[in-house]
Amino acid sequence: MSQTSDRARPRVLAVWLIVAGAVGWWAAFSLTTEKFNALLHPGTSASCDFSVLVQCTKNLDSWQGSLFGFPNPIIGLAAWMAPIVVGFAILAGARFAKWFWLVFELGVTLAFIFVIWLISQSIFVLNTLCPWCMVTWLVTIPTFYIVTLHVLRAGILPAPARIRRAAGSLMSWVPLLAVVSYAIVAILAQVQLNVLNTLF
């Protein structure tokens, strides 16, 4: 791998972290606003309630929507600032210690696991598709892929040389990996909720 490629890839990572962080933060902010509005005006429908299938209210009112005793979007308001800050720091030329990347990877992995759990709860238990939740899924999944591949290729996570080379090669395939992941979620939603027939 050339030095030019080595320099370019962190910039791509940085830009994605900023974009994903901003989109994820906006989704969290929108859901938090909807929750506050519901508390202030009980009985009113959320602006993201489009049908029995596509809505936010059922998700926000469920115990899954406040897993840790407070609305999940509050986690997003705090957590999505991290990738934005890291992204801008990388563009500014910052070099992070190994422990920092390991902590960041841990946070991204926990976010990914949380999102997978939320997807399963939404599709198989609540039987809804929350618009702002889906935006969060949309950016969390590729963020996990790109950060994990980065720490592998850079040798931050201990791995054999062939794994590091494979991770470097897979970086350009992150968009495809994300699309495949979205397709799996869409198929599960269609099988469980019959989305197409319900919407059309």
- What class do helices, strands and sheet pairing give? mainly alpha
- In CATH terms, what is the architecture? Up-down Bundle
Number of separate structural domains: 1
- Assembly form of the protein: single chain
**H/I helix tally:** 9
Count of DSSP strands: 0
> How many strands, which pairing sense, and closed or not: the largest β-sheet?
none
**CATH level-four homologous superfamily name:** VKOR domain
The H/E string reads HHHHHHHHH
Q: Topology, please?
A:
Layout: H1 3-40, H2 57-61, H3 72-79, H4 81-91, H5 98-126, H6 131-153, H7 161-170, H8 174-193, H9 195-199
Helix pairs in contact: 1-3, 1-4, 1-6, 5-6, 6-7, 6-8
Note down, in words, how this protein is organized.
The protein has 200 residues and is mainly alpha-helical. It has nine helices and no strands. The longest helix has 38 residues.
What attributes characterize this protein structure?
about 200 residues, mainly alpha, de novo design (two linked rop proteins), 9 helices, globular
How would you sum up this structure in a few lines?
The chain is an all-alpha fold. It has helices at 3-40, 57-61, 72-79, 81-91, 98-126, 131-153, 161-170, 174-193, 195-199.
